[in-house]
Known about the structure:
The protein is mainly alpha-helical. The protein contains 8 helices and 2 strands, in the order H-H-H-H-H-H-H-E-E-H.
Amino acid sequence: MRINRPEKSDYPEYYEKYIAKVAGNPLDELVANHKTLRRMVSRLSRKQLNYRYAEGKWTIKEILVHLIDGERVFCYRALRFARKDTTPLPGFEENEWVPNSNAGNRKLRSILREFDAVRKSTIELFSNMNKEMLNSSGIANGQPISVRSILFVIAGHEMHHMRIMLERYIEKSYVPPLVTGA
């Protein structure tokens, strides 16, 4: 199913940075990016997974759990709005959630299993929505947003954090092998 890009009037301006990252069908992007993200983090050492590039910044494991938490919240919002529930939904404070996520004590394998389950559920949820459902909207965190926009936000949010992981964690923590006999 082709899912058109949302109009800028369909979501708060804050989400533009995520929505703009999605070039194609957001469902296809969710599948492809999840595979890429899994490959990217599966190769990392325990030290890299727990690395913080600065005081107070999240580790890669914390970023992964943040992505899972965010995706769950966004899917809940999308489900409510697609079902024509007009109850305004509160926001959530990611910076309070992450320290309470237990990510640092979890094995990567456990985090990825959970992420796989959430992603599969996300894809099924949105794959089975018709145009009317995708065009539905509601109020989340005091702002109107459409279900279609939420799907694009989920895909773009993952891309945003993948870029941060590459630029600030993986490339900085990479130590090239020693060259001998030069």
